[in-house]
Please model this.
Amino acid sequence: MRASMAATHDANRHRFSAFVLAGGQSLRMGRDKALVELDGQSLIQRSVGLLRQLTSQVFVIGPPATYSFLGTDKVIPDCVPRAGPLGGIYTALRHSGTAINLILACDMPRMSAMFLNLLIQSIPGFDAVLMRHDDGKLEPLCAAYTKACLPAIERDLRSKKLKVSSFLDQVRVKFIRESDLPALGLDGGIFQNVNTPADLEAEMERRGSNGF
Model:
């Protein structure tokens, strides 16, 4: 609780909005993974609740008819159909009323408010802040972006370059490193995705063995 309160206090020094990407067709899960339950709560509810620890401005990018039950400020449909997560980020930045924006995929049930706070605290002077693992893998769906990224994303969308990380070489980026995590009491496990029934089963077993 103390860690969550500290994260909320620090993050609120910067006015920002937060967006949950509800995901696409969830083909590997076989059903809408955003609605899959873990510990009695859907993945998307968990994501919304986490972001509400940091800001009151929480939105969902996805079909309003599906996610209106969440009671967020607004559920926003993708303004670029079939553009994947890049289209979701674009939709979020287009609709945002703040310069700074948190983006979080709905399928990261181990994500921490402390890490999200680090993203927000690191954004001044940059257009994007995200995790880069030691092996070079990026985490663009758990990141902070400013509206200054919009022109680069628009160019990629027009060129049908839908890989989320493609536009990053056109903007000012700060990367969080794995070595930055231990100071927050965290490790790379916070980025674990739940994309398949096997992922879900493994996460449920992990929580059971850890007493969650």
User: Anything to note?
Assistant: The chain has a mean pLDDT of 88.
